[in-house]
Amino acid sequence: MKVKKFVAINMTEAMKQIRQELGDEAVILNSKVIHSRGWLGLIKKKKLEVIAALDSENAQNQLIVKEKKQIAPIITPQETTGSKMKNDLHEEISELKRMVHQVSMNQAIPYQDLPEPIQLICENLHEQEVDSEIISSLSSELLQKWRKSHVEPSFQQITEWGKQYLFNRLSHVAYGGFSFEKKFINLVGPTGVGKTTTLAKVAAGEILEKGKKIAFITTDTYRIAAIEQLKTYANLLNVPVEVVYKLEDFQKAVEQYKEYDHIFIDTAGRNYREIKYINELQNLIDFKENMETLLTLSLSMKEKDIQIIIENFKSINFNKFIFTKLDETSTYGSIINLVIKNNKGVAYLTNGQDVPDDLVECNAQILINNLFAGIKK
Length: 377
Ligand SMILES: Nc1nc2c(ncn2[C@@H]2O[C@H](COP(=O)(O)OP(=O)(O)OP(=O)(O)O)[C@@H](O)[C@H]2O)c(=O)[nH]1
Ligand SMILES: [Mg+2]
Description:
This protein is α/β, with parallel strands linked by helices. The chain has helices at 11-22, 82-108, 116-127, 132-148, 155-170, 195-210, 224-237, 247-256, 275-284, 303-313, 333-342, 364-372, and strands spanning 2-8, 27-37, 44-54, 64-68, 72-76, 184-188, 214-218, 241-243, 262-266, 291-298, 320-324, 346-350, 359-361. Helix 10 (303-313) links the parallel strand 10 and strand 11 (320-324). The longest helix is centred in the first third of the chain and has 27 residues, at 82-108. Magnesium ion is lined by residues 195-196, 220, 226, 266, 269.
């Protein structure tokens, strides 16, 4: 068997070379995209490396390699006999399927032509589901800085440029926990994201560290266990709880707790992709009160669904986001996308079930550090 490596700008050129050297009966064993350095080492040229072989003994039974849409070869079986040939054919088809998949995967990644360090950063952000618009403007910025640089920048330097770029895009919104300038502290958001747990974490901090006088209100009468859950935290923290079924109850509770420093409101999780549940919430809580409202979202949710929920909550005019369950993911891109898209900052991040420990007051730097934590050369 004669095996040879061919390098060409695309599959069409590779096929020409293979036909010229090995003839029509050559078999392609493997192909991969390779990169060669271009001008000043900046632009990398993409080439295709193809390994082809010719089995002279079985030449008459070999597969004829043809080209399909200039991307991947297809095979056309000629007359074959016996199970060996069937097996060979089967193997060839599997190999070609794998190659086609590989080539199409390579083409799907839009960062291939960038210098390697920038490519690495962009691919990592892509993995973390950062919006392609953000990655593409970040890569332009990094390329520009690279070109202006008199010496070849280190990977660390490029990473710092990337962090700075994102910081500029993220830092115009407000971060940090509740200001506690308002009497009512309110958490809203979809089912099971961690509203009650987070409320207990924040309340525990205010009571245990600052000695504040706190009361709880729950409007979650939808789930029987919800009241019990809040009561358990209330007992542990030694604070009263009022259950609110309608707006008048809410107003009564306001009067009843007027001596307290803050009233923490726990709301029911509903399918807030439907606007009717937002209206229900507005019928229970007087959002015109002296109130700070945070929209609680979990990182285990799909970003598309989160965005629909955010749009629906805009009528309530919430102050900031809380993102929960950071411990359940290593994909932080959606936080970055949602902050930039909605011009809203993040109050807290939660990273576990422990009350009160698994709560972090957020700022832009924390978001960027999380995003870049896994990017290493
Ligand atoms: N892994 C992890 N689990 C969390 C986190 N925060 C809350 N949980 C868990 O998520 C589950 C739901 O938490 P809840 O606080 O009851 O959520 P909720 O939003 O109040 O739920 P509903 O009131 O039913 O809408 C519980 O098992 C919590 O312990 C977190 O940051 N990480
Ligand atoms: Mg709850």
